[in-house]
Amino acid sequence: MSSPTGAWLLEQPKERQTPEIKVEFYRRDNLKLDYYRGSGRSFTGTVKISIIHPTQGTTQMFRRNLSEAQFKAVLQNPTAQGAKN
Length: 85
Description:
- By secondary structure, the protein is mainly beta.
- The chain is built from one helix and five strands; from the N terminus they run E-E-E-E-E-H.
- It has one helix at residues 68-76, and strands at 9-11, 21-28, 31-38, 46-53, 57-63.
- It has a five-stranded antiparallel sheet, with no helix packed on it.
- A hairpin with a 3-residue loop joins strand 4 (46-53) and strand 5 (57-63).
- The protein starts with 8 loop residues before the first strand and ends in a 9-residue tail after the last helix.
């Protein structure tokens, strides 16, 4: 089965995991993406995108309350302003 992440590298989980919320860490080129998943009352569907710019430093963007389909759209084009449809 092919990965929906394309060229994204899924990194090993860090210590921020809890039973209610799972965090997935992805990396591709000069982008880092953290996806906060939850269930029930802890649902977040939040993505933090960090862009590492060679002269301006790190810039962060957030997308909240994403469905699974919206998250996959962000993986395809993480810097699009209208990624949350």
